[in-house]
Structure formats: structure tokens, C-alpha cells
Amino acid sequence: MARIKRIDHVALVVDDIDAALGFWRDALGLELSHVEDVPEQESVVAFLPTGESEVELVRPTTDDSGVAKYLRKRGPGMHHICLEVDDIEEMLQQLKERGVELINETPTLGTGGKKIAFIHPRSTQGVLVELYELSPQEPQIRLERARHLAERVVARGRAMAVTTYAFLRGLRRNGEE
Ligand code: ZN
Questions:
Q1: How many helices (H) and strands (E) are present in the chain, helices listed first?
Q2: Which of 2, 59, 147, 162 can bridge 91 by disulfide, Cβ–Cβ 3.0-4.6 Å?
Q3: How far is the CA of 18 from the centre of ligand 1 (A)?
Q4: Domain tally, the chain
């Protein structure tokens, strides 16, 4: 029997990330770990860790993706819940045997090489459920992403320092004149 380990994330569809952060980050006090463009999901996603899990704010970047249609039809709100499972193939088999309707009969590869599959809301009392299995490469991929992110932040900091320096030098020069 495959086993559910924890809630990995809850995904909310929003039409304005900044407005949504006004509640989730500013009012509630969650930390924003990063915002990422996810072309394969045609979305921009903001990640807010909550201990072992994460809240994800998803804003569609095209008009015809599933998330975009969902947003148009229902407005902003809950999109799906994602559960981590120890063996996704076995779980999908198990569900099929019980007559559960699957959107993905076999796992697809998501961001960072993780295996994911969706269960149809018709079989879950109206909630889109995502299953996810941690791949062995994922911790390495995550580390690399974090490193790239850190490098980008440092590069941006350096660019800012140069601008600040030029600005200060300008001030000093003006002061001398
Ligand atoms: Zn998800």
C-alpha cells in the first residue's frame, strides 16, 4: 500500500500576486521565499513556506491554460491541494482499482523533475488533488535553484551598490562645486 506522507502545498489561484501578498505575507506574516516564472505551467508562482508545507500563489501568464480558465470562471481562490506520497505509481494503481477518476493515469514530470499526477475533482467531493513523489535528484535540483537565486540576488545587490556609489560620488562632486 502506498502511503500519504504530508501536505506538500496548497495552491491558490490569484489575478494579482502583489495584492495576494498583502494578505498572505503582510497581514498573516508568512515569509515569501521566492517568486518564480514557471513556463511549463504558464504561470508565475509565489512560494510561502509554512513549516513542512507551502502556500503557493499562482497567477496565470497566458489566457488559455487550465489555471487561466479556472480563474476566469470562478475568480481567485483555492485551486488544488498537493499530497506527498511515497510511491506515486502504486498509489495511482490503488486509486484506479477503487474506481477513482484520474486526470493523469501515469505521473508527469513537474518542476525540478518531480513526479506528479492529478486526481479529478469528480472523485474527491469537488477538490482538485495533486499527488507528488519526491525524486532522488530533487534535493540537488533545489540546491542548484537556491544557489542561482542567491547569485541573482548578489548580482542585483552589486548593481545597486554601483549605482549608489555613483549617486554618492555625484553628490560629493556637487557639494565641492
Ligand atoms: Zn501543485
A1: 4, 8
A2: 2
A3: 20
A4: 1
